[in-house]
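Q: C-alpha cells for this one, please.
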Amino acid sequence: MYISTVFLASLLALTIDATPVLIAKPIPDDQMQRIKELDQRSLRSKPIPEDTLATLKSFGRRSEDLDRRDSRLNCQKRVQGGTTQHDIAKVWVPVGNLNTLADQFCRDATGTDIALNHEVSDTYGTKLTNQDDATQTGGDGNIVFSIFNLYHTKGTYIVDHDSCLDAMKKQTNDDSTCYGKEHGDTRGGYWTVDSVGLFGAEIYIGVPSGK
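A: Here is the predicted structure, written as C-alpha cells:
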C-alpha cells in the first residue's frame, strides 16, 4: 500500500511538471499602439438601403468588354447625401488631395468583406478647389469614398488595396470626363468594376460631421 501511494504521488508530480505553464505578460507599448490603430482602421460593411440600391443599379449595367468599361464613369453622382445644383457646380477637389485620401481609404478598407448588396464607406475632410482663384486654397470639404457590392455572388467580396486604389483613381485621370483640365481637379464619380460593383467618391462642401 505504501509503495502504491508513493508511486501514485511520483506519477502525479511528473504529470504536473510536464504540463506547460503559460504566464500572461504585458503587451509592449509599441505593439499595443499598432493593435489600437488596426482596430480603429477596421471598416465594416453594411446593407445598402433599397432606394439607394435602385439608384446605383440605374447607373448602368456591367460590361464584359474592357474598352467599353473604361468609359463607364458616372461623374458627380449623389447617393450618400444631398446637395443643391448650385453647390454641385462648385464642388471640385484637387487631384492630389483625392488620390492621397483614396489611398488612405483603401488602406483602411483592405481586408473588409462586403456581402452582396452591402457597402463599405468612410468620410475624410479635405480642401476644395478655389474655382474663382486657383492660386488660393478653397474652402473646407469632405469626400465620401464607397465600395458597393452589386454583382459579386460567390461569397463576400474582400477589399484589396491595389484594386481599390486603381478604381478610385479613375476619376482623376486627365482623359476622364470627371477631370477638370483648368485647375487639375476632379468632381468625383463612380467607376463600374465588373463582377463587383461600383467604386467611387462623392465630394461635398463643409466639414464632415463627427470629424
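A few notes: The CA atoms of residues 151 and 192 lie 11 Å apart. The first strand starts at residue 46 and ends at 47.
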